[in-house]
Amino acid sequence: MAEKRILVALDYDNKAQAFALINQLDPTMCRLKIGKEMFTLFGPQFVKEVQEKGFDVFLDLKFHDIPNTVAKAVRAAAELGVWMVNVHASGGLAMMKAAKDILEPYGEKAPMLIGVTVLTSMSDEELPLIGINKTADEQVQHLAALAYQAGLDGVVCSAQEAESLKSTLGDDFKLITPGIRPIGSAVGDQHRIMTPEKALKAGSDYLVIGRPITKAPDPLEALTSIHYSINPTE
Ligand SMILES: O=c1ccn([C@@H]2O[C@H](COP(=O)(O)O)[C@@H](O)[C@H]2O)c(=O)[nH]1
After folding, report:
1. Total domain count for the chain?
2. Distance 177 CA to ligand 1 centre (A)
3. Residue 1 placed within a domain
């Protein structure tokens, strides 16, 4: 079985709906992402329940605070046994280093620590409104280099920046890309998008996919079809 590249974003407001999907999924085909909505509603207990079903969990809480606070939140995520956790790279070098350092005692069992660069919902036009006079691509390159310097395992970016990031930061630095839209799916609030096949070719390591799966008439069919489109030989 090939590496599990698909991270399904569980953005539901109730557990029953989430488990209706989870119970149909095979943990050898995908990993699951728990974000702010479900974590705020159902807390660490929900993370444990998902892990008990055999799934690796990406805890997508995008911590952004002073170094001491973020580091302790990252440690709490490690105690939960999640596979991946993230912090905002714009929180700065000291914050990211503190998050990295606190994971040292966990050794091989530490979650992957990922920096969020520029949200995939943001376009070049929106950045000046928050005081950033760069293109999204330039800002992603800047924040990814900072995350790399802090010793993080990779970044969240859009697949549109993947090719250049792989060439500057190398293959081992993981690229986690939301904003994945199979042909024909609704774009919604995302701006920097790409299809699953093109994203992998561009250098994405993991594809975060929510609504194209969870809002599909048949979510399992939607996931399976994306899976085989990127793993044609299975
Ligand atoms: O830059 C980012 C960072 C995180 N996300 C999250 O990914 C999923 C995407 O869901 P879709 O329904 O496929 O748009 C969602 O949970 C976001 O919170 C992101 O989109 N962009």
Report:
1. 1
2. 9
3. no
Angle between helices 36-52 and 15-22 (to 10 degrees): 40
Residue with CA at minimum distance from ligand 1 atom 3: 119
The ligand 1 atom nearest the CA atom of 9: 16
| pTM of the predicted protein model | 0.97
CATH number of the domain that residue 167 is part of: 3.20.20.70
Look at residue 68 and tell me if it is in a domain: yes
ipTM here: 0.99
Residue 105 Cα to ligand 1 midpoint, Å, equals 30
Q: Domain range spanning residue 32?
A: 6-230
Nearest alpha carbon to residue 197 among 186, 183, 213, 187: 183
Residue 175, ligand 1, Cβ within 6 A: no
Per-residue model confidence as pLDDT tens digits over 49-100: 999 999 999 999 999 999 999 999 999 999 999 999 999 999 999 999 999 9
202-232 confidence digits (pLDDT tens): 999 999 999 999 999 999 999 999 999 998 8
Structure tokens given for 16: 């029953």
63 near 87, Cβ under 8 Å?
Answer: yes
